[in-house]
Amino acid sequence: MFDVHKAARSTIRAVHEYVPNKPPDSIMKEMGIEHFVDLATNENPYGISPLAYKAILRESKSSLNHYPESTCFELRKKLSEIHCLSPDCFIVDNGLDSIIRLIGLTFLDAGDEIIIGSSTFSAYETTAKIMGAKVNKIPLTEDYRLNIDLMISACNRNTKAIFICNPNNPTGTIITKSEFIKLMEKISPSILVISDEAFYEFSDSPDYPQTIPFLSEYPNLIILRSFSKTMGLAGLRIGYAISSEEIIRMMMRVREPFPVNRLAQVAAMATLDDKDFIQQTLEINRDSRVKMAKAMQLLRLKCIPGQTNFIFVDLGQPVEPIWNALFSKGIIVRRLDGMNLPTGIRICLGKQKDLQFALNGLAEILGMLAPLIFDL
Ligand SMILES: Cc1ncc(COP(=O)(O)O)c(C=O)c1O
Questions:
Q1: What's the 118 CA to ligand 1 centre distance in angstroms?
Q2: Is the pTM of this model over 0.90?
Q3: Mean pLDDT lowest for which of 24-28, 203-207, 219-223, 246-250?
Q4: Pocket of ligand 1 contains residue 232 by CB under 6 Å
Q5: Every domain of the chain and the residues it spans
Q6: What is the CATH number of domain 50-273?
Q7: Is 198 in the pocket of ligand 1 (CB under 6 A)?
């Protein structure tokens, strides 16, 4: 008899399947809830750039019968001009999820160890487990930041990589430039540091490290950037890594030949040109972030407004009853009790009318007056 558990690689047996939620509209329909707001996924609530939309229409009329350009030549050229680096310092793939998997496939062996924060983006752990590597999770600081000192002291001769999610998902906090330099200086240069900057455009802190200039100093550094957040292209799946030409060439050995479709490539290039769209996204996000922090203060909830397109809220009590009550009002937020934050939720900075709807529901559950923060 065929036994799939025996047939699967031993490392895969220890990996939990990613079970996506049912699409929210069908769950809400089943529950008889007509109006709902989904504030659980950190996308751009205002859609995509109009220039990207035009580029997609143009491309879909002319060339979808052809394979995409394999290496994203034009996009890497554009990125190289923006960042003043060789195009060979860039690798583009089907979203950062794929890039993180590629890093695992290229660099992680069974017996290696990776160091990550105790509450951070889950793909690092999944990838390491698939490769048979050990995951060392380092507790966050009291103010919900990655603890760089503890991460440095956790390094040992099996450590292959440290994943720094900066800003960190799900807490929205950052590590500072001086912490970044301390990390790079103190660890062995044989350890890879992956700086996952999926949300970097949202950070307006003067302490946030601009890491690209450090590439020439630290050949063990890989920087990750996504088109899913500020750029609004989550549905097309495209993201990239920046590193030394040697690291990128090694990753190219493992990358699939055509991972980035034609529409994603042209949309990414058009979005990079659409400064107005990017500016508008950042301005609305900043406004929502400040207002939501104020609203949480009025609701007497501890909130980290963070440096991202979501806020982290510590409810000060177990998440489940409040999350369930929100859900039954059609308000979907991310519960974080599965991520070592038993009293935490993450609320995406969606459309402002949706945020007001969520605030009204949350206030009612807490038995408080709803803070009227946004115009409906
Ligand atoms: C920190 C972080 N890195 C990477 C990703 C994956 O991004 P992408 O949509 O480019 O695959 C996400 C998605 O939410 C994220 O939060």
A1: 17
A2: yes
A3: 24-28
A4: no
A5: 4-47+276-366, 50-273
A6: 3.40.640.10
A7: yes
DSSP 345: E
Mutate-to-test residue for ligand 1 from 92, 169, 261, highest number of ligand atoms within 8 A of CB: 169
305 Cα–ligand 1 center, Å: 19
Is 94 close to ligand 1, i.e. is its CB under 6 Å away? no
Per the document, the length of the chain is 376
pLDDT at residue 13 tops 80: yes
Give yes or no for a contact between 222 and 197, defined as CB atoms under 8 angstroms apart.
no
Mean pLDDT of the chain: 96
4-47+276-366 under CATH 3.90.1150.10, yes or no: yes
Please give the structure tokens belonging to residue 178: 């001086």
- At 144, the pLDDT band (50, 70, 90 cuts) reads very high
For the Cβ of 239 lying below 6 angstroms from any atom of ligand 1, the answer is yes
Q: How confident is the model at residue 15 (pLDDT cuts 50, 70, 90)?
A: confident
